[in-house]
## 1
Amino acid sequence: MKNIILLASVILISTSSVYAQKKKDLLDEIDKLRKELKVTKGELNDSRNKEKATLTRVETMEAQVKDLKETNASLLTNMGSFTELSKKKAQNLEKSLESLQEKDKQIKVINDAISKNDSIKLATLTILKNALGSDANIAVKNGTVLITIANTLLFGENDKSYAVTDKAKGLLGKIATALNKKADLKITVEGNSNALNIKDKSISDNWDLSAKQAAAVVRMLQKDFKVDPKRMDVLGKSEYGSSSIETATRIIINPQFDQFYSLIKESMKNGTKG
């Protein structure tokens, strides 16, 4: 009986010891799991905080991307406008350049025509100087060649006369020879008179006398020296025409301005075609 009781006691003590050990092991395991849970919760919180920060950064980056897209679209629009504006400016500059080139051509044509005209006047002046020498005053004024001859040489000492003297006939012959070498030039004979006291009833006044004197010169150039009358005009200036005290008749030699401008017009037309 005692042995049974002893055996039961031993078994009970052993069982208690095993239970106590298992309880301790369970408590240790629970403590370990609690610590792991705590660590896991900490890591979870860290992950959540990181996720929140990441989401914030993503939202910020998305906003920046949106702004960049809008800025890029605006830049592309502005670039398109700038390109179009630059294209228009380039076209305008090209048109301006073409216009300047055309005007340069026109200016060259005009300058060439003027140079040609000046050459004609210079040649005419040279011919007249060689022909007349010191017999008459020859000059270029306002684009025309002027031959000034004293009325006393043309009509004698009588300031109311409009009959050309024999002495003047030789001079007019030399002038006519020079003029006939330049058949494309226009001629105006300008009379200037200051015979204020006119008693001859065939002469109305100084206007009349100046015109008659100029006409007498033209008539002699035409009839005696074969100068084409279509080239000549008569102009009477009375006592108001001459700036000098001594009256004089002027032979004014002009280029054919209608031909001059026709030359320019035709040259411009040909320049445009080219």
## 2
Amino acid sequence: MMELCAPLVKNGGCDMVYVMPNLQPPITQVSDAVSYHERLSRLAPGVTFLMSLFLHPGLDAAAIAEAARTKIIYGVTTNSQDGVLDIEQYYSVFEAMEANGLVLNLHGEAVSSPPVEFAKSDGTAAVTVLNAEPMFLPQLHKLHAAFPGLRIILEHVSTREGLDAVRRCGPTVSFPRKDIMQNIQAQEKVTPLRLTVGSDSAPHPIQSKKGPGATAAGCFTQPWCTALVIGALEEGIDQGWVKEEDVTRESLEGFLSGYGRAFYGISRPPGAGGSRIRLERKGEVIPGVVSSRDGAIEVVPFRRGREILSLSWECY
């Protein structure tokens, strides 16, 4: 899967990506992240890969300091299927992350298995996929209050409650936007530097997404990431959800590139200042499936069969 997907990263208009560690098994050790980085870089030499570690009970302050020294590990993340319910057990880790400048990527929408019950004033309520994000938000506020200097990304924000929580936390808390069309108006209420695109490209083999017992969530978007964002904005304008005059070159460059890099504290890599992307209508259509050379791995892309803008890289 890595050999199939890594070379396609730049096709989506990205020369820098944040790599999640939720493999099978997950990336939990610094040495594993370094090895993973080496393999990815060989497959896509024109891309800068920002690595992360999986948050687990074995992670400690010493490992965080070691990760920071690598200069290629930028954060620690939970899994979208295994949220952290008791954050206090990781306070020493968060303290070390704050001190070393690493970013925490939280999946507030995660649901544990079996479902966990939170105590509420009116009784108890089981955590489900529909209420997990709002029920997690008190933990976000608690964490931010304890470590105000810790940069936090709240992944997969999909509710008004999540948006308001990020806004109340201040400039060290951000989130990547995927639900552009439905919530674009909410951007006006959040500091622009905290709005970043999140492709959340999740390639899964087709066998894991159909038939009895299929549980793999997520869509494969990376090879058309930028074009999908532009297409969503165009649809938003057509539907009246977005004002055309608000979609400027400056706002696009900030949302797609500058704001995220600024939040992660990253300047453009050497030699990258003279490149840009160009999108054109050429009748390109997203294929029905993306396959490895031997056909052993097949991945179904998001919005397969639909026309998409063609993307090319230019030097200037």
## 3
Amino acid sequence: MSAEPGSSPTPLSAPARRRTAWGRELAAFCAVALLVLLAVSAGTVWLSERIARDNALDEAEGMAERLAELLVAPVLADALAGVPGRWEELDRDVRNRMSDGSVTRMVVWRANGEIVYSSEDGQQGRVIAPSDGLLAAIGGTTVSEVDEASETTPGDGPRTLLEVYTPLTVAGEQLAFEAYFSYDGIDRQAARLRGQIIPMAIGALVVLQLVQVPIATSLARRVRRQETERTALVQRTIEASDRERRAIAADVHDGPVQDLAGVSYALSALRGSLPEERQPTVDKLVGAVRHAVQSLRRLMVDIYPPDLSGPGLGVAIADVAEPLRAADIEVLIDAAPLPETSPEVTAVLYRTAKEALANVAHHAQAKCAWVTLEETELRGAPAVRLEVADDGVGFPASTDKRAEGHLGLSLLRDRVVDLGGTVTLSDRVGGGALLTAVLPLHHAQ
């Protein structure tokens, strides 16, 4: 084999040829679709929750702005101006509005944290450090935040409330209006909106999946039919090729081989009747004819290999090694008895050994070659290992010579991989090259 030493094996094998399993693939498709549906549904629930809550908060902020403008501002302006009875009127209007429970507290603040008005008794006039929300409202921005206790009632037990701060201008003074909303109402409003969004979104996804499954099933059946038809076509092509090769081998055997064998016998019989000085010429002609017969017989084996089952494979490989022995290359063959293998696997093993030995003869500059044939395992199944080693110059840096018109190793690899096997090129310990081919005993159609 042509070679240049390297440090590590060079795998030529691709993954074993995929075997169709459309039922499993369809089940996998449905499982993935279900997982996607669950993931998208979870995302939809989360997103709808955010949308519903944001909408509820926006509505609460709008309500606080309306309370400040329409309920508090008109009466508070008179109250601050000292109009008699206006504080009582403001307090009465605020309590009437709070009677439905949606608003639990209302407070009007100055920028320094002083309470101008509070729906709770005893809070008016208190000064509390202004919060970020209060300062934002003084600056003209409506903000909301969730809190479990208000600044005005620090002694109350924990209760989840929604605080909304909104700007309030009274008699030219910039104030802040704060309204406390019950968070239960926000939750209920968000739940109503969520109940409208989720069924629509998830229902559409479920309908989409229900439509996709029959389509995927139909496509899988169609592809399976096409794969079956393609496999049958390939099988018929292979059978036709085998018949044609058998016919060509028979024609060569019954025609040129027999004719040349007859010429060889005739020349041998003629030798004795010729002058002694002409006999060497006849010997050369007989040798040439016999060499031609041997070449034709090797060609017949290449075109249509003989029965290679059992010990026949080792014998056939030994015959292939004869040209190397004729070129003074020692060939040692260790062919262990093998279990029954499929004809396709046996033929590929034979052709692989033949191609490897041809590379040894033409490129390796070797003095000795070793061929090992033994039983092994491949992916947990019974298999055959073929090793062809030499003591030559090793593999080249690149074994892909297709650009130069050399297809031997590429075709060898393709044959083995097509049957679910592997081919590995590596350096032989002690120098030279090592080709290892492993094929399963039986090739599944």
## 4
Amino acid sequence: MLSPQQARDIASNLVERGIAAGATAADALYIGHGSNSVQVRLGELEGVGGSEGEEIGLRLFDGQRSATVASSDLSEEVLATLVDRCLAMAREAPEDPFVGLAPSDLLHRGDLPALDAEDASAPTPDELRARALACEAAALAVPGVTNSSGGGASASSAIVALATSDGFAAAYRSTGHGCSAGVIAGEGAGMQRDHAWHSARHLADLDDPGAIGSRAGERAVARLDPTRPRPGKYPVLFDPRVAPSLLGHFAGAISGSAVARKTSFLLDKLGEQVFAPGVEIIDDPLRVRGLRSRPFDGEGVAVHRQALIEDGKLTGWMAESASARQLGIPPTGHAARGASGAPGASPSNFYMAAGPRSREELLAAFPEAVLIVELIGQGVNPVTGDYSRGAAGFMVRNGEIAEPVAEITIAANLLDMFATLEPASDLEFRRGMDAPTIMVPEMTVGAA
């Protein structure tokens, strides 16, 4: 894997070759990654893995035509062939009035923001093994846990470099550390399984493996002997484990490509009240040590913190250059891409801000409610917002978590859910997409 400076240089050189060969514009993206991981089960080493790879993608433009090619071979001979092949493909591609690089005045200039995304710690396989064993042992020590599906620990790093023919060239490195355990509680047909995991940019920020394991065991045991509630309308609370899925549906609905294709249930909602007053949804690519932090987007556009929902109102779309041109707006700094394809739009550190009431207050807001801790299936229509998913969780009565429930479905429409939901105050930044406990006052609950 190259260093950030080497990656920047090779991307810049490939762009220069593309222009010299006759392309009207060009960009190149290098992605390198490496990881080490250890898996254990029932106290025994089950697997040790290590991987390292790199890929560079070149996009060349011939007027309003473009093509992208990629290679994991960075030899001089292959890169020279890459330029010729990409330009030939671009000249045969259909014209597209919306293709092109991001406007040069929006590109990031100067020093990159300090995101503290790189940790010098490099755990050895023995250290990873010890962490995985400690995590699994803590899970197995929870009374009621009867088996394990394994524990794991990992360490990874990545290099990203981007260069464009408009003079942008930059690279950055990030690292990651993770730990997880999955266990089974109970016996026979009554067995239940659950898991816990945590990941962080810096090893010092990673949860203690024993705490992760205990959490996995306690979750599995709590789900023993589930029942099904009587079908009907219930208030439904989404635990922070699953609440970010609602943000995922929102992000998809405000992507520039979905809006431009008119396939979004939020198509006509720009500037309107989509959520209740007070609700805020933020995208923050510059969060220090954030799991999805980035100093620039996939087209080199400068990034900044944005409130996409402010006091419940939809303030804008997420758009890379192509969909932004279709919509008649500037690119929003949300371009994301792999080496072998054109950019799309995606959020970075995306979260719903905490609300004023505590989780306990939301649990006690109704005499009876359903708390969801697991969602199953993909039953969401992105065009209409119709929502129906399998789920498991717990009944809540008079503010207290009661018996577990499983094999149920929850259904509503996302427009209605968004308009009435309330976030609790228990927001924690633990993923790339985060939300506190979320209460939806009414959903249809039935048998799966």
